[in-house]
């Protein structure tokens, strides 16, 4: 049997990341998304040129994106819900136009990967070509590779004292008081960041190195979440990790968990015959 | 979808993301027919280059002949995770700054005759957290805007 549970966990994590990102935007509906005096035309969708955004319409789009995310989490209508979420989410963002964040783009890339994902709600499948997982790895390789290699090639301060990181930690918008206290550790943290980001593209593929590079980058995201104010980027990025984790490692972890709960490992005759294959036991 | 179609899709995805990555690294220049936003969607450059500058915006309004400070947070209440919406660096650029000034005129309860957008700048120091402008900060008038001035909406972003 092939492990498919990563997609199930990713769907839930993705929906949670959407809620964390999108729910607070309700506060800006009339000020930012449907204001009458600060209307911008985004060069990609030109939404405000063809769709007058009223507060009522903005609330509808906002609400439908939330409902769609919940349906994705529920699973039965996950793919149609993703096809609803994509346009409604981006029409609303494009109406605001000023503030399309990196995590909005990453949420979209994850949504596209979920569209390619195996359609089953089961944790195990008899066959899987794994290509959807490869697509997701390519997205993360571009994400971490671009930032990591840009740091490595274009900004020597990352490896020479880490002043660049110490300055980011005290940015008036993104920094924090706790981040400022980390200045003495900046040289070490900077090298760690560059090494983890730049090596992801090489290490994620192999079973032996896969969990270690994911653990390092998860630690980086959690560290950023604690010491910087960059919104939900880390939670969005972590949403794809259940699929990035090597399937055989994930299956091993799941088997051990099941064994500890029921005394029967996944992949045994009972599971393969159908009993217990489905959403995880709660 | 047949497996060959999936593999072709993966190759196309890899080519697109690879080109975006090389573009980000400055190793490739995109042809003119490719819209900048098409590459923006797959390009990632976050907290990468060294920058010790910090900035904030302030505004003043002329009301009944007197110049008074404007409470921008009251007029533009939307807060992003990284501060107020009006504090976004993009507001420094001309078309957006026009719209900000125009909106101050529209939203100010005392109907000002003119407004002035001011950029406050200071230098960051590692280990020192200064979310608000310190005393050493310098101020520069970015724009003076007459409230009778017309602004055609929507303002196109560049």
Shape of chain B: elongated
Strand content bin of chain B: 25-35%
Radius of gyration of chain A: 21 Å
Helix content of chain B: 25-40%
Largest interface, Cβ cutoff 8 Å? A-B, 65 and 66 residues
Please count the helical segments of chain A: 15
Classify the helix fraction of chain A into a percent range.
55-70%
If you compute it from the alpha carbons, what radius of gyration of chain B comes out, rounded to the nearest whole angstrom?
21 Å
Low-confidence segments of chain A, ≥5 residues, pLDDT <50? 268-282
Structure description:
- The complex is a heterodimer of chains A (282) and B (158).
- By secondary structure, chain A is mostly helical.
- Chain A has a domain at 1-107.
- Chain A is 65% helix and 2% strand.
- Chain A is built from 15 helices and three strands.
- Chain A has helices spanning 5-22, 29-33, 47-50, 55-74, 78-96, 102-116, 131-154, 163-168, 177-181, 186-203, 210-227, 233-239, 241-244, 247-262, 269-272, and strands at residues 2-3, 40-41, 124-125.
- Chain A has a two-stranded antiparallel ribbon.
- In chain A, α5 (78-96) runs antiparallel to α6 (102-116) and α6 (102-116) packs parallel to α12.
- The longest helix of chain A is centred in the middle third of the chain and has 24 residues, at 131-154.
- The relative contact order of chain A is 0.14.
- A four-stranded antiparallel sheet of chain B has the order 2-1-5-6. A two-stranded antiparallel ribbon of chain B has the order 3-4.
- Chain B is elongated and about 70 Å long.
- The mean pLDDT of chain B is 89.
- Chain B folds into two domains: 3-40, no CATH class; 53-146, no CATH class.
- Chain B has helices at residues 3-24, 36-40, 72-75, 94-107; strands at residues 53-63, 66-69, 79-80, 83-84, 114-123, 138-146, 155-156.
- With 158 residues, chain B is of the alpha+beta class.
- At the A-B interface, β2, α6, α7, α8 and α9 of A face α1, β1, β3, α4 and β7 of B.
- β2 (40-41) of chain A pairs parallel with β7 (155-156) of chain B, so a sheet runs across the interface.
